[in-house]
Amino acid sequence: MRRPFEMGSKLSIPSETSHRSDSIWRYAEPTMPHKILIVDDDEPTRAGLAMLLAEAGYETVTAATVPVASKLLSDERPDLLLVDIRLDAYNGLHLVAIRPEPIPAIVLTGFADRAIEADARRLGAEFLLKPIAPSVLTTLIKRLLFSGRMGPPAVRRWPRHTVTRDARIDVDDAAARVLDVSYGGVCVEMQRSEGDGPPGAFRLIIPPADIAVPVEVVWSRRRDARTWLCGGVVGEDAATSWRAVVDTLT
């Protein structure tokens, strides 16, 4: 029998609204139920997850897009983030990277991808493949919320350092500069043609030997019509030597 949050379900709820649970909370430790933010652009999946977690005693807030979810992260202050990878033109890892507080995060996807899994775990998130057995998901959520394990927020796990040496960015014909680096990644500012979004990846050229380090963009924020602020993590093959690179640049 298919669970309501599996793909293809006809169950639906209004998009990007709060779904409050009236169920009796099963876990008696706190006085109020934990709040979970569910982000998925597929309405049946989003509704099914909300129903499953409401029945498990959690309060849920849902969103279909990254901009709405980003606002809910600040306004609703959820205790856990549950997010799909593919969200229209966005990557769900963007929300994991920018979450304002070190709340646990679970990344969901229907596509096995070792690189995305590595990025998710590097950002401190759990990684699950759809379809997911309800008991597996609820057990993981309970463990994350009640065991005290808070997924480490990559953007604050390590201190950021200003780059003191010249480092170039190789990305199309865009003008770009490195703002800071940390053992967790790099933050850059780049100019794009009006109407163009941020790149999915770029190369960081390290002096003096001009070593090229591949960087995958995991979050981005528009500053104006042409300026983007982007955060990235290094490619898996360069991760082991990245700390030495950071020490060289700062």
What is the gist of this entry?
With 250 residues, the protein is of the alpha/beta class. It has helices at residues 43-55, 66-75, 93-98, 114-122, 134-146, 154-157, 239-249; strands at residues 18-19, 35-39, 59-63, 80-84, 86-87, 90-91, 105-109, 126-129, 161-162, 168-170, 176-182, 185-191, 201-206, 211-222, 227-234.
Low-confidence stretches: 1-31, 148-156
Question: What shape does the CA trace take?
Answer: elongated
CATH class of the largest domain: Alpha Beta
Global structural class = alpha/beta
Query: In order across it, which strands form the biggest sheet?
Result: 9-11-12-15-14-13-10
N-to-C terminal Cα separation, in Å? 56 Å
Number of helices: 7
| C-alpha Rg (nearest Å) | 19 Å
Main β sheet profile? 7 strands, antiparallel
Number of strands: 15
Give the full name of the CATH homologous superfamily of the largest domain: Response regulator
Helix content: 25-40%
Characterize the structure shown.
There is one protein chain. The protein has 250 residues and is an alpha/beta fold. It folds into two domains: 18-154, Rossmann fold (3-Layer(aba) Sandwich), CATH 3.40.50.2300; 161-249, Thrombin, subunit H. Helix content is 26%, strand content 30%. It has seven helices and 15 strands. The model is unreliable at 1-31 and 148-156 (pLDDT under 50).
